[in-house]
Specification:
alpha/beta
Length: about 230
């Protein structure tokens, strides 16, 4: 489950493409300061089945995501009870569930955050299979509470971002009950957010799998772009 980090030149090239006129200094992330919260629940109404267990790569979509995480990171999987048997060299994984079950991504984030003891988290939804390796190449500016991808059309990818743990805890306290709340409502309580401005060349890296056709597209992207594979 090793993730080979790019050299400084490659890293600088990637950031120059996705950060548009942003003076924030981005550096390689320190795994000891960041945990991964992987949201693997949700009703999956448009897909018609549980996304976490969709066949993808050499296993399921959930296992594909876990294989992309270096063993030095702690991982919290939020979703239904799942039998996860990662490789011995994989990351430390803890499972939990939002309360009440099915209460949405903010409730799931809140449940995952209770098991985190690092200063920052990488939040990723199970249905964004190619975003995490890109996300783990970045970290937060010291003066920012979050770093969130934003598509060219303005769509904000809240569930593929880096967040400061204490900032989220304060925002959750200000929000009140997290049940059935949106990430937009939660992040409204964060006073400083940086955005990764995604160009058209980055769209596939941050794609969501919401429908059966999206799954077909993602499988084809995986086949033709081996650089995204674990």
């Amino acid at each position: 489950m090793a993730l080979v980090c790019p050299n400084n030149l490659h890293f600088a090239t990637f950031i120059s493409k996705v950060v548009d006129s942003n003076p924030t200094s981005l550096v390689a992330v320190n795994s000891g300061e960041l945990s991964v919260i992987l949201l693997a629940g949700g009703s999956s109404r448009r897909m018609g089945s549980d996304k976490a267990n969709l066949e993808f790569g050499d296993g399921t979509l959930l296992i594909f995501q876990l294989k992309q995480i270096p063993s030095t990171y702690s991982v919290v999987v939020v979703g239904e009870t799942i039998d996860i048997r990662p490789e011995k060299t994989g990351p430390t994984i803890t499972c939990t569930r939002e309360n009440p079950p099915g209460a949405g991504p903010v409730a799931a984030l809140a449940a995952g955050l209770e098991l985190v003891n690092t200063p920052a988290i990488a939040l990723i939804a199970v249905d964004a299979p190619f975003a995490l390796p890109r996300l783990l190449q970045c970290t937060l500016d010291p003066n920012s509470h979050a770093l969130i991808p934003r598509e060219h059309g303005g769509k904000i990818q809240y569930l593929a971002g880096l967040y400061r743990s204490e900032s989220l805890r304060l925002a959750l306290k200000q929000l009140g009950s997290p049940a059935n709340k949106s990430m937009r409502e939660l992040t409204a309580h964060l006073s400083s957010i940086d955005y990764l401005e995604l160009g058209t060349e980055d769209a596939s890296d941050f794609m969501d799998i919401d429908t059966p056709q999206d799954l077909v597209t993602a499988r084809e992207f995986l086949r033709t772009h081996p650089r995204v594979m674990p």
